[in-house]
Amino acid sequence: MKTLHSLSTALLSASLLFLSIACTPTSGEPGPQGPAGPQGVAGPQGPAGQNGNANVTQVTFNQTFNATEYKSFTFPPAITTDILNSSAILVYIRTSNDPNNLYPIPGMIAGDDFRYFLIPSSRSFQIRRQSGVYVSSISMTKVIIIPANNLINGRVGLPDIDFSDYNAVKKYYNLPD
Fold it and tell me: Low complexity bias located where (predicted)?
């Protein structure tokens, strides 16, 4: 019986040795790529993105001029006649009397009536004081050009912001100082 047990143990050991050698992987080429698995379920909706400024352009003119003068400005070459003819144009000025604020024009500033006159064919505009004597000089002019995205029946829907408040416009369109 002892011989039978020794023979069984030897046979089992030899079988295990044979199986371990036979199952050792060889270093051959990898097999072909398997087929793609099924599409997973859609993930949850992400948070709403921040409002962008699309094609809104801000042009700053850091030129000081006497408020009694008619001052003409020419837009940079990238601002074309077509852009000016199809965009909302907002003009803001900073006065030497109040260097901390930008005021929308056309509009009244301390009793002075300021206007701007757009001349698309020459890609320029003029600023004029129509009446008043309080403001002595203009120290900065900012122009915001908002191209129309969609014209319907000659009307463009504008966002619900106070265009007379430069800071509100700057914030809405993510404009730099």
Answer: 36-54
